[in-house]
Design goal:
The chain has 366 residues and is an alpha/beta fold. The strands form 3 sheets. Strands 1, 2, 8, 9, 10, 11, 17 and 18 form an 8-stranded mixed β-sheet that branches. The protein has an 8-stranded mixed β-sheet with strand order 5-6-4-13-14-15-12-16. Strands 3-7 form a two-stranded antiparallel ribbon. Helix 1 packs parallel to helix 7 and helix 3 packs across helix 7. It is elongated, with a radius of gyration of 20 Å. Bound molecules: flavin-adenine dinucleotide.
Length: 366
């Protein structure tokens, strides 16, 4: 029977980037994915690498800054291995902060009305605004590029059947069991996102936090008649920058799509899309840039962010020997994927992680 050094539960951005990074260290890896890889929160995400957002938890600033710095090299490495790129855009963000919130990151600067009009002539909103030196990626592309790169490097992936439990023998994890099979592994990492709590003998305390999002496109495509992928869009985006306001954020993609997001809702595992919410997001974005009102709604969806009890990720060894956690990334899993993969691969290969993970330990919930 084949055995692996590490069995990863969940093939979202966190599980896949960890598998990919571990393969760089020569570790044998199996990812067990319940559905299809990268089709849950990762698929739903906007993809902002929002390291300047003043709303980021202070405890996370070091990890966030390190991960944002890693992004260009991370994407370049993936491109070299998978021959595809996840649409990394580093035009920057225009942020209209709430109240007196001030972004704190190198390169952030206030914008005068004249500079704002020069940077984005189509933005009608006025008020205190900042330029932030942030990037964004397309998380759907990132998911497929990570899967391809991980497989190219020799990671194994089985999908279509979820892990029911971590197998335990003599007080340590020995692999994972699905309804169909047992997969032996010397170490197991729970990367099951919003579902991480459901795994026996004990899960990690994540809970789903619903986010609804809308995609608008130029041209005459309606939500009812839209093809599943807006291939053939070649206009380029209406706005160059990501735009963030307290009511809505707008994320341009290079192919002309614009994503409008997102709600933050405690709704259990409900992923239904509410038509009123879609209209509300479209109206809020139109108030920022009136041209968006002429764009067609192409698609709308909801995803489940993996929230944790204190809003921080859950990273490191659990109380069961050989069983680890890399989950609970809540609103920042795309941003935090490169640093999570690096630090967790260091933990799993017996090295001291180059940033301290103590405050993110699963043991804080014991
Ligand atoms: C609307 C929205 C917008 C967002 N925008 C951003 C953003 O702009 N920037 C940012 O950084 N983050 C953003 N996020 C957050 C980000 O999407 C998440 O933090 C990130 O995707 C979490 O990745 P993950 O791999 O932990 O979870 P997921 O992507 O959900 O992956 C978990 C995987 O585990 C699988 N799984 C579950 N149970 C089992 C089981 N028992 N056995 C095997 N597999 C299992 C699931 O099928 C899934 O594929 C957003 C999220 C949402 C919903």
């Amino acid at each position: 029977m084949k055995t692996w050094d590490v069995g990863i539960i969940g093939g979202g951005v966190i599980g896949l980037s960890l598998a990919w990074r571990l393969r760089h260290s020569g570790v044998t890896v199996l990812v067990v994915e319940k559905g299809e890889p990268a089709r849950q929160a990762t698929h739903a995400a906007g993809g902002m690498i929002a390291h300047c957002d003043p709303g980021n938890p202070p405890e996370l600033r070091e990890l966030i800054a390190a991960s944002a710095r890693m992004y260009p090299a991370f994407v370049e490495e993936l491109r070299a291995e998978a021959f595809e790129s996840p649409d990394l855009r580093c035009e920057g963000t225009i942020a209209f902060p709430a109240d007196d919130e001030q972004p704190r990151c190198e390169g952030a600067r206030p914008l005068s009305d004249a500079e704002l009009s020069q940077l984005e002539p189509l933005i009608a909103r006025r008020g205190p605004a900042y330029f932030l030196p942030e990037c964004s990626v397309d998380p759907r592309k990132l998911g497929s590029v990570l899967e391809k790169a991980a497989r190219t490097l020799g990671a194994d992936l089985v999908s279509g059947s979820g892990v029911k439990e971590v197998a335990v023998l003599a007080g340590r994890a020995t692999g994972v069991r699905t309804n169909k099979a047992y997969y032996p592994a010397a170490a197991v990492v729970n990367c099951a996102g919003a579902w991480a709590a459901q795994i026996q003998p004990f899960g990690l305390p994540t809970h789903p936090v619903k986010g609804q999002m809308v995609c608008v496109v130029p041209g005459k495509v309606s939500l009812e008649s839209a093809p599943s992928s807006p291939k053939g869009l070649s206009h380029g985006p209406l706005l160059r920058h990501v735009v963030r306001t307290p009511e809505v954020y707008i994320i341009p993609r290079s192919d002309g799509r614009m994503l409008l997001g997102a709600t933050v809702e405690e709704a259990g595992f409900d992923k239904r899309v509410d038509p009123d919410t879609v209209q509300h997001l479209h109206r809020a974005a139109t108030a920022v840039a009136p041209e968006i009102g002429h764009m067609r709604i192409h698609d709308a969806w909801a995803g489940l962010r993996p929230g944790s009890p204190d809003g921080l990720p859950i990273l490191g060894a659990t109380s069961l020997k050989g069983y680890y956690a890399a989950t609970g990334h809540y609103r920042d899993g795309i941003l935090l994927a490169p640093i999570t993969a690096l630090l967790m691969s260091q933990v799993l290969t017996g090295q001291k992680p180059e940033l301290d993970l103590e405050r993110f330990s699963p043991l804080r919930f014991a």
